[in-house]
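It would be a great kindness if you could assist me with a short task in structural biology. The matter concerns a single protein, recorded as an amino acid sequence and a row of backbone structure tokens. The record follows directly beneath this note:
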Amino acid sequence: MSNPKFTHVAVGVIINSSNQVLISYRHPDTHQGGLWEFPGGKLESGEAVTTALKREFLEELGIEIRCCFPIKKIQHHYQDKSVLLDVWHITDFDGHANGLEGQAIEWRSIEDLRASDFPAANVPIIKLLNLPTEIAITPDVQDFAELERVIATLLKQELKIIQFRQTQLDSDRYLHWFERISLLCSTDNVKLMINHDLELYAKTSAAGYHANSKRLMQLQQRPVGQDQLFSASCHRLVELQHAEALEVDFVYLSPVCPTAKVAIGEEMGWVQFQSLANQISAPVYALGGIRRCDLPVARLRGAWGISGIRAYLQPGGA
């Protein structure tokens, strides 16, 4: 339930094939008027969030929402009111966007979104939108030379985030390898995230911290600042819910498909993935036996994107 002290607002994010997001202009005589916003509107008494979202998009934009998934809840206090934004990713819809209430609308490139153009409560949505649709994870390797070859292959694919996973290394060696690889990634503006004990995080120049499911369940609060990334590996609803409570920036949900370690019939499959993704407000990345060509179906099933190891190291993303 929403807090009665907050104005509960359903907000929808639609991204087109050109990586542009739909925004609309607030009339000057409204609260936070004269700024752009991500479309949506207030919930009526007793109204479900999805019902409000569908109603607002149909009435204001002429868009009939067919499928959407929760991705973030934002509480923000203005001087004159407090709002709770329930942000949903709209993955399937009918119709063409039009400003049916006289408001200007625009498909704006995500790279061109500026915080100063939006109400303060919308700014966390911009951070979310800048998450990539693909994230690579490094495989365990035998030596540093092999790791350098792996990183070179990943950098050629213009990936924006790489999770540095080397489970075979002790803390000292992990830190040494991480810092050397971090220098390579920084020249390409690639964010390198640490996947190790939290105590090691403070000793690195990491762009963020990743917690495996065991470390996740041991955390009692968000382990890094809001200016850093925080992700977690999840396999069950209780883990997803705990990650959401810790204000995770995104989660990996696995195993979606069979892998070398997950036999056929033991994977969760896309139906269960969709069901789980629909129960938390956080961006979810599909992981486990995923191929790069799976991105469209993953997005339709509620994923913000996909992630993997072999998908980025084998020809054709197999």
Q: What stands out?
A: Residues 171-186 form the longest helix (16 residues). The CA atoms of residues 213 and 233 lie 5 Å apart.
